[in-house]
Amino acid sequence: xKMLREAQxxxxxxxxxxxxxxxxxxxxxxxxxxxxxxxxxxxxxxAPQMRSEKxxxxxxxxDESGSLSNRNLEAIGAHGSAMCKECAPREVVIIxxxxxxxxxxxxxxxxxxxxxxxxxxxxxxxxxxxxxxxxEHGDAQVVLMFTDMEGPMxxxxxxxxxxxxxxxxxxxxxxxxxxxxxxxx
Length: 185
Fold this sequence. Notes:
Elements: H1 2-7, H2 15-25, E1 27-35, H3 37-43, E2 48-53, E3 58-63, H4 70-87, E4 92-97, E5 101-107, H5 127-136, E6 142-146, E7 161-166, E8 177-180
Parallel strand pairs: 3-4, 3-6, 6-7, 7-8
Antiparallel strand pairs: 1-2, 4-5
Helix pairs in contact: 2-4
Protein backbone atom coordinates (compact mmCIF):
# COMPACT_ATOMS: atom_id res chain seq x y z
CA UNK A 1 0.00 0.00 0.00
CA LYS A 2 2.83 2.37 0.85
CA MET A 3 4.48 1.81 -2.56
CA LEU A 4 1.17 2.41 -4.36
CA ARG A 5 0.55 5.68 -2.48
CA GLU A 6 4.03 6.91 -3.34
CA ALA A 7 3.58 5.96 -7.00
CA GLN A 8 0.29 7.81 -7.39
CA UNK A 9 0.48 10.91 -9.54
CA UNK A 10 -1.27 14.02 -8.33
CA UNK A 11 -4.15 14.87 -10.69
CA UNK A 12 -4.63 18.54 -11.50
CA UNK A 13 -8.14 19.65 -12.52
CA UNK A 14 -8.33 20.95 -16.12
CA UNK A 15 -9.37 24.44 -15.13
CA UNK A 16 -6.20 25.15 -13.11
CA UNK A 17 -3.68 25.12 -16.01
CA UNK A 18 -6.24 26.98 -18.12
CA UNK A 19 -6.63 29.63 -15.40
CA UNK A 20 -2.83 30.03 -15.18
CA UNK A 21 -2.64 30.47 -18.95
CA UNK A 22 -5.50 32.99 -19.04
CA UNK A 23 -4.13 35.08 -16.16
CA UNK A 24 -0.74 35.16 -17.87
CA UNK A 25 -2.42 36.87 -20.84
CA UNK A 26 -3.94 39.64 -18.74
CA UNK A 27 -1.55 42.33 -17.62
CA UNK A 28 -1.61 43.58 -14.05
CA UNK A 29 1.58 45.21 -12.89
CA UNK A 30 3.05 48.20 -11.13
CA UNK A 31 3.93 51.12 -13.39
CA UNK A 32 6.52 53.66 -12.20
CA UNK A 33 5.62 55.99 -15.08
CA UNK A 34 2.40 56.73 -13.18
CA UNK A 35 2.71 57.38 -9.47
CA UNK A 36 0.01 56.50 -6.97
CA UNK A 37 -1.11 59.95 -5.82
CA UNK A 38 -3.39 58.49 -3.13
CA UNK A 39 -0.45 56.85 -1.34
CA UNK A 40 1.60 60.03 -1.72
CA UNK A 41 -1.11 62.14 -0.04
CA UNK A 42 -2.09 59.65 2.68
CA UNK A 43 1.30 58.24 3.62
CA UNK A 44 3.83 60.64 2.12
CA UNK A 45 5.29 57.77 0.11
CA UNK A 46 6.18 57.75 -3.56
CA ALA A 47 4.86 54.48 -4.98
CA PRO A 48 4.03 53.09 -8.43
CA GLN A 49 0.44 52.83 -9.56
CA MET A 50 -1.10 49.40 -10.16
CA ARG A 51 -2.20 49.23 -13.81
CA SER A 52 -4.51 46.59 -15.19
CA GLU A 53 -4.72 46.06 -18.90
CA LYS A 54 -7.83 44.31 -20.12
CA UNK A 55 -7.29 41.07 -21.90
CA UNK A 56 -8.21 41.00 -25.58
CA UNK A 57 -10.96 38.98 -27.23
CA UNK A 58 -11.28 35.33 -26.22
CA UNK A 59 -13.05 32.81 -28.47
CA UNK A 60 -14.64 29.74 -26.90
CA UNK A 61 -15.58 26.93 -29.25
CA UNK A 62 -18.09 24.40 -27.94
CA ASP A 63 -18.33 21.08 -29.79
CA GLU A 64 -22.03 20.17 -29.58
CA SER A 65 -21.76 16.90 -31.48
CA GLY A 66 -22.59 15.01 -28.30
CA SER A 67 -19.03 14.74 -27.03
CA LEU A 68 -19.78 17.01 -24.06
CA SER A 69 -22.64 16.23 -21.69
CA ASN A 70 -24.91 18.89 -20.19
CA ARG A 71 -23.02 18.39 -16.91
CA ASN A 72 -19.72 19.00 -18.73
CA LEU A 73 -21.15 22.16 -20.27
CA GLU A 74 -22.25 23.42 -16.84
CA ALA A 75 -18.74 22.86 -15.46
CA ILE A 76 -17.14 24.63 -18.44
CA GLY A 77 -19.51 27.58 -18.04
CA ALA A 78 -18.95 27.87 -14.28
CA HIS A 79 -15.15 27.66 -14.39
CA GLY A 80 -15.01 29.81 -17.53
CA SER A 81 -17.14 32.53 -15.91
CA ALA A 82 -14.83 32.61 -12.89
CA MET A 83 -11.74 32.86 -15.13
CA CYS A 84 -13.28 35.66 -17.18
CA LYS A 85 -14.19 37.62 -14.05
CA GLU A 86 -10.57 37.33 -12.96
CA CYS A 87 -8.97 38.09 -16.36
CA ALA A 88 -11.57 40.58 -17.67
CA PRO A 89 -11.33 39.95 -21.41
CA ARG A 90 -12.62 42.70 -23.69
CA GLU A 91 -15.19 40.23 -25.00
CA VAL A 92 -15.90 36.51 -25.05
CA VAL A 93 -17.19 35.05 -28.32
CA ILE A 94 -18.83 31.65 -27.90
CA ILE A 95 -19.05 29.60 -31.09
CA UNK A 96 -21.15 26.44 -30.96
CA UNK A 97 -20.78 23.90 -33.72
CA UNK A 98 -21.43 20.41 -34.96
CA UNK A 99 -20.50 19.83 -38.60
CA UNK A 100 -21.49 23.48 -39.13
CA UNK A 101 -21.71 26.65 -37.03
CA UNK A 102 -24.93 26.44 -34.99
CA UNK A 103 -24.72 29.58 -32.84
CA UNK A 104 -22.45 32.55 -32.13
CA UNK A 105 -22.85 34.64 -28.98
CA UNK A 106 -20.81 37.57 -27.69
CA UNK A 107 -20.54 38.35 -23.97
CA UNK A 108 -18.94 41.45 -22.48
CA UNK A 109 -18.04 41.99 -18.83
CA UNK A 110 -17.94 42.73 -16.07
CA UNK A 111 -20.30 39.89 -15.07
CA UNK A 112 -19.38 37.19 -17.62
CA UNK A 113 -22.17 34.93 -16.41
CA UNK A 114 -21.72 32.23 -19.02
CA UNK A 115 -24.42 29.59 -19.16
CA UNK A 116 -23.81 26.75 -21.57
CA UNK A 117 -26.69 24.53 -22.59
CA UNK A 118 -26.84 22.26 -25.59
CA UNK A 119 -28.53 23.93 -28.55
CA UNK A 120 -27.97 21.27 -31.21
CA UNK A 121 -26.48 17.85 -31.90
CA UNK A 122 -24.84 16.21 -34.91
CA UNK A 123 -21.52 15.20 -36.43
CA UNK A 124 -18.29 17.15 -36.00
CA UNK A 125 -16.28 19.20 -38.50
CA UNK A 126 -13.79 21.78 -37.22
CA UNK A 127 -13.06 23.38 -40.60
CA UNK A 128 -16.09 25.77 -40.62
CA UNK A 129 -15.08 26.95 -37.13
CA UNK A 130 -11.56 27.90 -38.17
CA UNK A 131 -12.88 29.53 -41.35
CA UNK A 132 -15.18 31.71 -39.20
CA UNK A 133 -12.39 32.56 -36.76
CA UNK A 134 -10.09 33.54 -39.63
CA UNK A 135 -12.78 35.66 -41.29
CA GLU A 136 -14.29 37.40 -38.24
CA HIS A 137 -12.22 36.78 -35.11
CA GLY A 138 -8.60 36.83 -36.24
CA ASP A 139 -7.96 39.57 -33.66
CA ALA A 140 -8.67 37.17 -30.77
CA GLN A 141 -5.97 36.66 -28.20
CA VAL A 142 -6.72 32.96 -27.75
CA VAL A 143 -9.13 30.27 -28.97
CA LEU A 144 -10.33 27.69 -26.43
CA MET A 145 -11.63 24.50 -28.08
CA PHE A 146 -13.83 22.36 -25.79
CA THR A 147 -14.16 19.08 -27.67
CA ASP A 148 -13.43 15.36 -27.97
CA MET A 149 -11.21 16.19 -31.02
CA GLU A 150 -13.01 13.70 -33.26
CA GLY A 151 -13.74 15.10 -36.69
CA PRO A 152 -12.06 16.68 -39.72
CA MET A 153 -9.62 19.49 -38.83
CA UNK A 154 -7.57 21.90 -40.90
CA UNK A 155 -3.91 20.90 -41.14
CA UNK A 156 -2.68 24.26 -39.91
CA UNK A 157 -4.01 27.55 -38.62
CA UNK A 158 -2.29 30.92 -38.86
CA UNK A 159 -4.60 32.71 -36.43
CA UNK A 160 -4.54 33.20 -32.66
CA UNK A 161 -3.16 30.65 -30.20
CA UNK A 162 -5.38 27.57 -29.83
CA UNK A 163 -5.86 25.51 -26.67
CA UNK A 164 -7.66 22.18 -27.06
CA UNK A 165 -9.42 21.28 -23.79
CA UNK A 166 -10.37 17.63 -24.16
CA UNK A 167 -10.75 14.28 -22.42
CA UNK A 168 -9.18 12.65 -25.50
CA UNK A 169 -5.75 11.35 -24.47
CA UNK A 170 -4.90 9.46 -27.67
CA UNK A 171 -5.22 12.00 -30.49
CA UNK A 172 -2.90 14.94 -31.05
CA UNK A 173 -4.05 18.28 -32.39
CA UNK A 174 -2.50 19.39 -35.70
CA UNK A 175 -1.67 22.77 -34.07
CA UNK A 176 -1.98 24.49 -30.70
CA UNK A 177 -1.62 23.06 -27.22
CA UNK A 178 -3.71 20.38 -25.52
CA UNK A 179 -5.05 20.30 -21.96
CA UNK A 180 -6.39 16.92 -20.82
CA UNK A 181 -9.67 17.46 -19.02
CA UNK A 182 -11.95 15.48 -16.81
CA UNK A 183 -14.83 17.92 -16.96
CA UNK A 184 -16.29 16.42 -13.79
CA UNK A 185 -13.49 18.03 -11.70
